[in-house]
Fold this sequence. Notes:
Blueprint: H1 19-22, H2 38-42, E1 44-48, E2 53-56, H3 57-72, H4 80-101, H5 106-111, H6 121-149, E3 173-178, E4 183-188, H7 211-225, H8 247-262, H9 272-302, H10 308-328, H11 330-336, E5 353-362, H12 365-379, H13 385-396, E6 400-403, E7 408-411, H14 412-425, H15 429-443, E8 456-459, H16 469-482, E9 493-495, E10 498-507, H17 518-526, H18 538-563, E11 568-570, H19 572-575
Antiparallel strand pairs: 1-2, 1-11, 3-4, 5-8, 5-10, 6-7, 9-10
Amino acid sequence: xxxxxxxxxxxxxxxxxxxxxxxxxxxxxxxxxxxxxxxxxxxxxxxxxxxxxxxxxxxxxxxxxxxxxxxxxxxxxxxxxxxxxxxxxxxxxxxxxxxxxxxxxxxxxxxxxxxxxxxxxxxxxxxxxxxxxxxxxxxxxxxxxxxxxxxxxxxxxxxxxxxxxxxxxxxxxxxxxxxxxxxxxxxxxxxxxxxxxxxxxxxxxxxxxxxxxxxxxxxxxxxxxxxxxxxxxxxxxxxxxxxxxxxxxxxxxxxxxxxxxxxxxxxxxxxxxxxxxxxxxxxxxxxxxxxxxxxxxxxxxxxxxxxxxxxxxxxxxxxxxxxxxxxxxxxxxxxxxxxxxxxxxxxxxxxxxxxxxxxxxxxxxxxxxxxxxxxxxxxxxxxxxxxxxxxxxxxxxxxxxxxxxxxxxxxxxxxxxxxxxxxxxxxxxxxxxxxxxxxxxxxxxxxxxxxxxxxxxxxxxxxxxxxxxxxxxxxxxxxxxxxxxxxxxxxxxxxxxxxxxxxxxxxxxxxxxxxxxxxxxxxxxxxxxxxxxxxxxxxxxxxxxxxxxxxxxxxxxxxxxxxxxxxxxxxxxxxxxxx
Length: 579
């Protein structure tokens, strides 16, 4: 179920582009591209200040596929509005980056009291690390395909930076009692600055090098120092395998050939290293732009402080809006609460819902395909109902739990035994929640629930169910048999998705605002955890909204000032075939 967002979003709020999006070749199979030639890609879709900043057709396509499609269009087909809004977004981002970084904009920055944004060594290295992660992910996808063709797999422990690893929420403010004033207050927390002194760039940008020279350096440097190969013969002469050469080497060749095919109709060099550098530069520019805009936003927020009154006022605004809306449209509450409870400020029916989290051991694609095949046999009369049930039970019995920490598969029975043992040791509710959370991150295939701001809210009334029947009924059994006992959990529960272990994590909570002081409201928000397994509170969520709203206003004022009196030209003929 899609989460509903009820907050103002900055055009730079979501700056980091997901690796899964970047991995999609920007032209291959892209409905937005009709003829992939240099001349068309270089055409200017929009320009600012007599061409000082331009957005080309190629820039527009990249921005649409990486940001605009998910931001402005809810369908797989580009719309006129979506493309035009993406063009505005791309131009605003480019104009702001130019304003923040260009040396000849120093006077303009001084006029608007804005400091030049220069990335620290650590921030610059983070950009490069993102580029390396992207390239390694791209190459690994080729290697996975090659191994799958030979029915050969490789298991690797999950990297700590993986999206499935537990990540505590980094709070920006702390709510505390100030004994010197006798009042509650918000205090801004200082970020721990990370210092690095050595660059991990593929080449020294200050050197006077030709493109070909930079390409050779970049290609060799990456292969020697940043390529995460698994069995490269060329890179490790001690490695042996039964493959003709090496899966990693073959995957690298496929990756480079893919880049060359992607440029087949363009008047570009066919040298491997130069195709590689063009891809590096494409991805680098996206992450660099993100880093500059993120630094600008962070610099502004670091210079601002918010008050208890601002946070309380924002929450009351959201609360009162939902109070009126839910009372006029009760079904809207029942639609929103099951999976998007972090967006519920007025709990219309707190007594009718409770919270659960789960660990899912999902059926594999192979299992689902095998089950579908058995169903087809049953439909065609090739097997009886009893044979179908027996065969499906056999397929499902093969389900195993993948341990991300060890890279090994374990039996579900072993995982349940280990969970029971760990829960026996855990004496408090918080300890039980922590154990369950750790097992989730180690084994659960429902990655959408890992580090999620919301858990599942289950209705006491079965007629309001939005979850599958077995999941919802088992959840209600946990509630009815151990109401108030947070940490109560089920055995293995089978659904069409796999096997679940479900934990009861508490009743739905209400927050009161009527007649409450601002301090009392914040105290409630500070004790209201959006997801009982994690440390982010409703107070944190409201602080995010207050600070984001403040930044939105500032961002818009700077952009308007920078663009004032400057020509902005759009050329619809360059992009009107994209929708």
